[in-house]
Amino acid sequence: MSSRLRVFFIDNAVAILILLLIAFALPVAKLPASFLIQEILMRLGRDTFLVLALLLPIMAGMGLNFGMVLGAMAGQLGLIFISDWGIVGIPGLLLAMIISLPISVVLGWMCGMIMNRAKGREMVTGFILAFFMNGIYMMIVLYAMGSIIPIINPELLLSRGYGIRNVVGLDGVRQAFDNLIPLHVAGLKIPVFSYLIIAAGAALLIWFRSTKLGQDMRAVGQDRGVSASAGIPVERTRILAIMISTVLAGIGQIIFLQNLGTINTTSSHEQIGMFSIAALLIGGASVTKASIPNVIIGVILFHLLFLVSPMAGKNLIGSGMLGEYFRQFVSYGVIALALVLYEWKRVTRENDARATLRGGGAA
Amino acid sequence: MTARSLIQRSCALLGLLALSAFLFYIGKGHTLLVDTAAVTIDGREYSSAETVSVSIDGREPESMGRAERTMAQVGGPRHRITIEVVSGGGQKVEQRFVIPTFLDTALVSVPAILGGAPRQHWVTKFVAPAAEDAPAEEMQQQEQSTVLAAPPAIKP
Amino acid sequence: MEAVRRFISSFGLPRLLITVFLLLLFAVAPMVGVDLPSSLSDVLIRVGMNGIMVLAMVPMIQSGCGLNFGLSLGVLAGLLGSTISIETGAVGMAGFLTAILVGQGFGALFGFGYGKLLNRVKGGEMMIATYVGFSSVMVMCIAWVVLPFKSPTMIWGYGGSGLRTTISVEGFWRHILDDFLAFRLGQGFKVPTGALLVFLLVALAVWAFFHLKLGTAITAVGLNPTYAKASGININRMRIISVMMSTMLGALGIVVFQQSFGFIQLYDGPLYMAFPAVAAILIGGASVNKATLVHVIIGTMLYQGILTMTPEVFNAVLKIDMSDVIRVIVSNGMILYALTRTMKVAK
User: Fold this and answer.
1) How many domains does chain A divide into?
2) Measured between CB atoms, does A162 come within 8 Å of chain B?
C-alpha cells in the first residue's frame, strides 16, 4: 500500500471503521429507510449545534472540550427559569438563551482559567471539571432552587418543597424552533428553522476564523511559544476559546431540549459531552483538527449507528441490549482510539525530533 | 478597559436587558378559560346561545354549549376570539383583547363578549375555588410525574 | 504566621479543609444523636473494603503514568475471577482464593496489554486510561451476556442466559474477611479485623516492594526518566510492570470489596470505580507523580470518613440527604486540585 494511502487510512481510521460498521449493521437491522431518514433529519436539527461548540477549543489547541457540559448546564438553567415564569414559544427559547448567556460566560471563563493551570492535560481536567460542576449544578438545582433561589411555579418543585423535579416538561416551548418554518417533503418533516440556526452558527464560526481573535486562536493552537513571542495573549485567547465554546454549548443544549420536549433535570446534560465528542470524532475530526464537514458527517454517522445497533443486535443475536452495549462500546472506543492516535502521533513526532537533534552523534 | 469599550459594553448589556424584558412581555404564557356560563354584569344578565363555535387566535374552532368551559394555552398579551352562534341566528363576533402580563389564568366570558358588555368584563382573573385544591395536591405528591410549565389543553 | 502558611501550602489547602470538615462532622455527630461507635465501625469496614483499590493507584503514580483512571480493567479482571469462582461452586476460603487467583491471572494479562498501550502514549495516559477503561467495561458487558456461564445463582432466572446484573456472594464467601478475627467493643462497634489485616499486609508488601531494587527502579522512572535511562533501567519495562501491578491490585481490591459488600456488580458497575480511589489517594496527600503508603492509608480513612459521616450528620441535623452531591463535589474537586497543581511544581 502506498505511503499516501496508508496515511489517509490512519488519519481517517475512525470514520472508515464506523462506515464499515454501519454498512454491516444497516441491512441486518432491517429498519425502513423512510424511518431512518426522518430520524436523521430530525437529529441533525437537534444535535449539530452542540457539536459545533467543540470546534473552537480544538482550533486553539486545547483538545476535546469535555467542559462543554458546563454550557449545557447553563442552557438547562435558562430553560428551567423560563418554564418557571411561563414564557412560551420562540420568545421563551430566546429568553432562555439570554439567561444562559451570563451563566455560560462565567462558567466558561472559570473552565478556561482552570485549563490554563493544567496545560498539557486540558482534556482530563475538562473531563473532571464536568463531573465537579455537575455536583455544583445538582446542589443548585436540587437544593437551592425553591429555597434560596425563588421559584414561582410550585409545580416545578419536588414534594418536599424545594428542589426542581426530576422531569420538567417543556410543553410551552416544545419544538418551537423545529416547527417555526414547517416543511413537509415526501412525507418527511424537516425542521427548517433549526437548520437555519445551525447554518448561522456555522457561518459565524467561519467568519470568526478570519477575525484577528480567530487567527490568534489558530496560532495559539499550533504553537503556544511562537504565538507568545509574536505578542498574542496566549492565556486570554485560550480562555476566550473555551468561553465561546461554552456559550455555544448552552445554545445548543436549548435547541436539543426544545426538540426533546422535556428536561431530565439530573441527566439531560450528563452524556452530552461524550456523545458530541464521539460524533465529532466519528466524522473524521481529530484532537487537533476539526472542521464543519466533520461535524455534519459525524452527527449523521453517529446517529445512524445509534439507530441501527439495537435492532442489529436483536436480529443478529437475539438481544437488543447487546446492540445497545455495542453502540456504547463504539462511542467510548472511538474516543479512546482518537486519543490514542493523537498521543501516538505526538510521541512519534517528539521522538523523531529528538533523533534529528542528536543527529548522527552519540545516541 | 477604555471608556469607549465600557460604553459599548454597557450599551450591549442594556440592550440585552431591554430585549429580555421585551421577550418576557411577548412570550408570557397564559391559560385562557373560555367560559360560556351566564354572567351578571351591572345588574344585567348575559347568556350564551345553545351552541356556539369558538376559536382563539384562528385556531381550530371548538363547539361549546350553554355552560361549558374549555382551556387554551396562549402566549403573549394580544389575542383575538371569534364566536359564531351555530344554533340559530348566525351571529358572528370577532374581538381582540389584551391579557395583562402577570395574569396567569384568565377567564374569558363568551356571553359578555357576545352580548356586547363593557370591555373590562370580557377577561377577568380566574380565582380557583377552594375545592379545586385536591387535584393540585395529588400532582404535588407524585415526585416522578411530569410537571408541565402550563397545563395541557383539556376539554371538560 | 509564616509557619502556618508554610504548613498549609505543604499540607495542601483542600486537604486541610477536608480534614477539618471531617473532624467537625465527628464532633457534631454525637450532639445530634448520631451513634458514633457504629459510624466509626462503618468507616473501618469501608476502609477495609476500598483500601486495596486505593493502593492500586500507587505503582502507576510512582512510575510516572499518572492517575490510573483505567482501574476498571483491574476490576474487570477481578470480576472475571469472582464469576468463574462462583461458577466452579467453590465456597468459603477456597472460593475466595479461587476468585483472587483467577483475578490475578486476568489482571496480569490485561495489565500487560494496557501497559504496552500506555507506553506508546506517554504524556497522555490519563485520558486514554479513562476511555480504554470505559470501552473495556462495555466489551465486558457484551461478554457477560454471551459467555457460557451456567451457575443458577448467576444467570437470569426462567431459563434465561447471560449473567445477572448483581450476583450475591451469600453462601460463598460473604464477609469472609470482615468476620475473620472480628471483635466487638461495647455495643455496635465491630471491627472487621480480617479485612483490615489483609489491607495492611498488602500495603506493607507494596511498601516493601518499592524499597527493593525493582521498586526503586520504578520510582526512578517516574521521578527522572533521563537519569533512570542513563542508569541502564529499561523505562518501558518498568512502566509495564507498574501497570500490571496496578491492575492486579485492582483485581484483588474488587474481590475484597465484594466480600464485604456482599454482591458482585457486573455490567456498568465498574464504569466509574476508578474515581473514588483516585480521589482518596489524592486526599491523602499524593500528587499526580508521587504517592506513598501514608497517602493511601490517610486518604482512604479521610475519604471513607467523609462518605460515611456526611449523610448521617446531615440527615440528623437538616433532615436532607446531600451526601451524594457532597461526595461528587469533594472527590472531583480533589482530583481537579491535583491536576492543576502539578504545573506550578513542574515550572
Assistant:
1) 1
2) no
Mean pLDDT on A4-26 = 79
Angle of helix A234-260 versus helix A212-222 axis, rounded to 10: 110
Cα separation values, C342 from A118, A271, B26, C58, Å: 7, 28, 52, 17
Domain hosting B103: range is: 29-127
Q: What is the pLDDT of residues A17-51, one digit of tens each?
A: 888 888 888 887 788 888 889 999 999 999 999 99
Which among A130-139, A173-182, A300-309 has the top mean pLDDT? A130-139
Q: Which chains are within 8 Å of B by 3+ CB pairs?
A: A
Q: The whole model's pTM is what?
A: 0.87
ipTM value for the complex: 0.87
Model pLDDT for residues C85-129, shown as the tens digit of each residue: 988 888 888 889 999 999 999 999 999 999 999 999 988 899 999
State the CATH number of the domain containing residue B104. 2.60.40
- Report pLDDT digits (tens) over C149-161: 888 888 887 666 7
CB contact under 8 Å between B147 and A87, yes or no, is no
* Contact present, A284 and A16 (Cβ < 8 Å): no
pLDDT score of C159: 62
DSSP string, C104-138: HHHHHHHHHHHHHHHHHTTT-HHHHHHHHHHHHHH
Residue A362: Cβ within 10 Å count: 5
- A129 within some domain: yes
Domains of chain C, by residue range, sit at 35-271
In-domain check, residue A317: yes
Rounded distance, CA C281 to CA C329, Å? 16
**Predicted pLDDT of residue A321:** 79
| Residue B112 within any structural domain of the chain | yes
CB–CB contact B75 A172 (8 Å): yes
- Work out the minimum CA distance from A131 to partner chain C, whole angstroms: 7
Q: Collapsing DSSP states into helix, strand and coil, what is residue A160?
A: coil
Task: Show which subunits contact A, needing at least 3 CB pairs below 8 angstroms.
Answer: B, C
Q: Which of A89, A167, A168 sits opposite B27 (nearest CB)?
A: A89
**Smallest Cβ distance to B148: which of A94, A101, A169?**
A169
Percent of chain C with pLDDT over 90: 47
Chains in contact with chain C (at least 3 beta-carbon pairs closer than 8 A): A
Strands of A171-329, DSSP E: 182-185, 188-191, 262-264
Is the CB of residue A159 less than 8 Å away from at least one CB of chain B? yes
pLDDT at A80: 93
- Asked whether residue B22 is domain-assigned, the answer is no
A363, part of any domain: no
Structure-model confidence comparison of residues C7 and C237, the more confident one: C237
- Asked if residue B2 belongs to a domain, the reply is no
Range of the domain at A89: 2-358
Q: At what angle do helices A272-282 and A33-52 cross, to 10 degrees?
A: 110
Angle at B132 between CA B128 and CA B138, to 5 degrees: 130
Mean pLDDT to the nearest integer, C142-151: 86
Does the beta-carbon distance from C322 to A319 stay under 8 Å? no
Within-domain flag for B133: no
Do B149 and A165 lie within an 8 Å CB cutoff? Answer: no
CATH number at residue A75: 1.10.3470
Number of domains in chain B: 1
Q: What is the DSSP track for A277-304?
A: HHHHHHTT--SS---HHHHHHHHHHHHH
